[in-house]
Every structure is written in C-alpha cells, then in structure tokens.
Amino acid sequence: MTGKERILVGIDGSEDAIRAARLAVKVARMLNATLTLAMIENPEDYAVTVERESLLKAKEELMWNILQTAKNEIAEEGVEIDTMIDVGNPALKLAEMAKNGYDMVVVSRKGLGATKSLFMGSVSVRLVQHSVVPVLVVP
Ligand SMILES: Nc1ncnc2c1ncn2[C@@H]1O[C@H](COP(=O)(O)OP(=O)(O)O)[C@@H](O)[C@H]1O
Ligand SMILES: [Mg+2]
C-alpha cells in the first residue's frame, strides 16, 4: 500500500473496545499510521416488526456519539483519527473494509456481549477467520 499506513479499529460501545483503541493509537504512533474508528450496525439486532427506518436514524446518531466519545478518550497529539459507521454483519463488514484499504485491524477479545466465560467474542473470532490483513486482538 502506498502512502501512510492505515489502521482500522472496531468500536462497539464497550470499554474493552476503548482499551483496544488506546493500544491502536500507540501502534499508529510507532508506524506513523492513521486510525479509523468504525462502528457497524447489525440489522439482525432488531425484530423485523419494528419501524426500521426511524430506528436506524436514531441508532445512527447514537453511533456517531459513541465514536466521537471514543475518539476524544483516546486522542493523542500527532495521531490522525477519523470515524465511520456502516451497516452489515460486523465481522464481515470490518474484514471487507480492511481488505479494501487498511493494513491492520484492531479489536478487543470481548465486547458488549459480556458472555465472560467465552474465550473470545463472536465478532473477533469471525474477523480473525475472514480477514486477509493482520488482526490485532487485544485481551
Ligand atoms: N458492531 C461492531 N462494530 C465494530 N466493532 C465491533 C462490533 N462488535 C464488536 N466489535 C469489536 O469486536 C470486539 C469484540 O466484540 P464481540 O466479538 O462482539 O464480543 P462480545 O460477544 O463480548 O460482545 C469489540 O470489543 C470491538 O472491538
Ligand atoms: Mg458483541
């Protein structure tokens, strides 16, 4: 890839993801890379009977807020951070985004799911299975 290295970070609103993003900032500094904080909205999270359009609008605003908060929390001088949201299966969407323009993806081992007995969350497991770029999974 030409130009600056680019690192993609998966944000799901959990403290675990913020911790992963903090490490990502350190890595970005070492590699002189830029960061993108991405939050994927999973349509399967909702029953089909609810009004999807209005729900999506409300959810979108919430997602931008979560990303902006995450960005503020991890901001470090000299590291460029942007944010984006998308819709789809979170693991597959992150893998697709990474393939199309990133050098590395960073996620936490766990997230909002809080099934603490599981070794790894389903998004991080699936991302590791599908990604063609390196995935850094932060414990
Ligand atoms: N919807 C999402 N959008 C972006 N990143 C996500 C999303 N869901 C999970 N991730 C990333 O994957 C990590 C692990 O989450 P996940 O595999 O869903 O575990 P859990 O089952 O504990 O929620 C999160 O900390 C975050 O970095
Ligand atoms: Mg989850």
Summarize the structure.
The chain has 139 residues and is α/β, with parallel strands linked by helices. It is built from four helices and five strands. It has one domain: HUPs (Rossmann fold, 3-Layer(aba) Sandwich).
Q: How many angstroms does the end-to-end distance come to?
A: 28 Å
Listing every helix as H and every strand as E from the N terminus to the C terminus, the arrangement reads EHEHEHEHE
The CATH homology group name: HUPs
Major sheet: arrangement of strands: 3-2-1-4-5
* Total beta-strand segments: 5
Multimeric state: single chain
Tell me which CATH architecture applies here. 3-Layer(aba) Sandwich
Radius of gyration: 15 Å
Share in β-strands: 15-25%
According to CATH, the fold-level topology is Rossmann fold
**Rounded average pLDDT:** 91
Main beta sheet strand tally, sense and closure: 5 strands, parallel
